[in-house]
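Obj: model holo form, ligand = PRP.
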Amino acid sequence: MGIDGRLTVAMPKGRIFRDALNLLGEAGLTLPRELVEDSRKLIVEVPGEDLSFLLVKPVDVPTCVEHGAADLGVVGKDVLLEEERDVYELLDLQISPCRLSLAGTTDWQPVLNPKVATKYPRIANRWFRKQGQQVEVICLNGSVELAPLTGLADRIVDIVSTGRTLRENGLVEMEEITRVTSRLIANRASYHLKSRQIGELYERLAQVVKEEGGLQ
Ligand code: PRP
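Output (holo structure tokens):
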């Protein structure tokens, strides 16, 4: 489980990374240079602590945790809802707040069976089914905002944080699907086998979240 008996935490490279690092720093963890600086190392050990970080793509955090490559992970609720992995969700870290929304061009007209581009096919399919709307979901891996501008799709389901990407591409938010913050997740076996180590880190993080309402 994890690497050597150490506690291993999967960290998402990208948008959440800085907020997650700040939170860990606030919780009193010494952050190794390779983690803070731009490094290509994928496994980073914390000196003096029985702790290692795995640096992975956000979408791969729940996979690493479910399969036990990492004991814990930091991941957005959007990815958790999409991936539906068998992991424990331990704590809302209240960092990197954003929302998953339906968006499109201002002159969008309703059509039969509209095409919806997204990185979140499961969430989108579930949401439209609940609305009683039939749509064709088109999966993209990034630059989703391009889809309504190029005729690839009629609308998109994507993350809106500052709203800048939508604005700069002439798109508008139409409906919020769900609010998103980052979560601490745990491998089910590790949660029991490493309960002391996980409990300690959980308490340190929960204390920061409680005191500061997370670091926005
Ligand atoms: C997300 C999302 C938008 C952007 C929204 O992408 O897909 O493109 O952030 O942020 P804004 O409202 O502040 O402009 P992310 O940065 O997660 O990277 P990705 O495109 O590689 O998925």
